[in-house]
Design a protein that fits this description.
Elements lengths: L5 H20 L6 H12 L5 E2 H8 L3 H13 L3 E6 L2 E9 L1 H5 L1 H15 L5 H19 L2
Length: about 140
């Protein structure tokens, strides 16, 4: 059997991951991208994340993040807080509703991670993560 190109395998695994995650998130009325933003907010100190931080973290454009944040606001999960040091800047904060679902969503994130790495040993998972980070870092520097 011929070995596939790494670029094709990365793309194929990304598509499989997105399909799996989006199916899991249907009952929550969330997309994978919205869920990633929620996870970033859950794991960051309160009121420390700006829209530009999300753009940088996920290599997304401003219009894309604006739409995602708007939908999270519409669904009652996120609110904008004015930066007291710069009135033109806003931080994103989780609503009480989002906070009430913290454990459920964090548990779901862990389940997704476990499902996607099922069949790999801890060492293989660590090596895969290290190699992907190396590829990402190389291309973010360009």
């Amino acid at each position: 059997m011929e070995r596939s190109k790494v670029s094709i395998l990365i793309k194929k695994s990304s598509l499989i991951f997105d399909k799996y995650v989006n199916q899991l998130l249907v009952p929550y009325h969330l997309t994978g991208s919205q869920f990633r933003i929620l996870m970033m907010l859950y794991k960051s100190p309160d009121c420390s994340v700006r829209q530009t931080d999300i753009e940088a973290a996920f290599s997304m454009t401003n219009p894309t993040v604006t739409g995602l944040v708007h939908n999270l606001e519409k669904n009652g999960l996120v609110k904008k807080i004015t930066n007291p040091e710069d009135k033109r800047s806003r931080f994103l904060a989780l609503t009480e509703y989002a906070e009430s679902r913290r454990n459920e969503f964090l548990s779901l994130a862990d389940s997704i991670e476990n499902e996607m790495t099922d069949g790999l040993s801890e060492t293989e998972t660590a090596v895969l993560s290290e190699l992907l980070l190396k590829v990402i870092k190389k291309h973010e520097e360009q």
